[in-house]
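Example 9 (inverse folding). The structure is encoded as follows.
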């Protein structure tokens, strides 16, 4: 009998890129969670100017969870509650050598996304889904 593999969670949404003058521009994005990478979430930005290829950022699922209610993260990825006239959002700040970007993400979208990820891999059970032997074999194969 084979074990049932949990499936990937993916949610299509629209984020808002906050420009320096405080205007916000919509950006198509996908939130993705793969149980084979149980500690991480991935945000794929579907930018038309990127030649059709999505731009992906990966960071800790726990960072996203914490950022729903309090500031979280240092360095390249920071997340915090963002309440404004349009409702409850979460701020997602990304930094790279190429520049910085600040996005508004609807809080309700992140809550639903995280609930779905926790139904696939419950919080605190990420190690149950790690294939350490496979990871070591891949690392050693590159030598």
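The amino acid assigned to each position is listed next.
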């Amino acid at each position: 009998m084979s074990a049932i593999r949990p499936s990937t969670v993916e949610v299509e949404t629209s984020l808002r890129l906050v420009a320096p003058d405080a205007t916000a521009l919509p950006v198509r994005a996908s939130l993705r969670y793969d149980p084979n990478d149980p500690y991480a979430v991935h945000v794929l930005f579907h930018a038309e100017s990127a030649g059709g290829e999505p731009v992906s950022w990966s960071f800790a699922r726990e960072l996203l969870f914490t950022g729903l209610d309090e500031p979280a993260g240092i360095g390249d990825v920071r997340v915090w509650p963002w309440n404004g006239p349009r409702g409850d959002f979460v701020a997602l700040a990304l930094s790279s050598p190429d520049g910085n970007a600040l996005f508004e993400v609807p809080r309700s979208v992140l809550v639903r996304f995280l609930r779905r990820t926790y139904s696939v891999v419950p919080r605190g059970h990420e190690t149950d889904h790690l294939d350490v032997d496979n990871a070591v074999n891949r690392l050693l194969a590159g030598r």
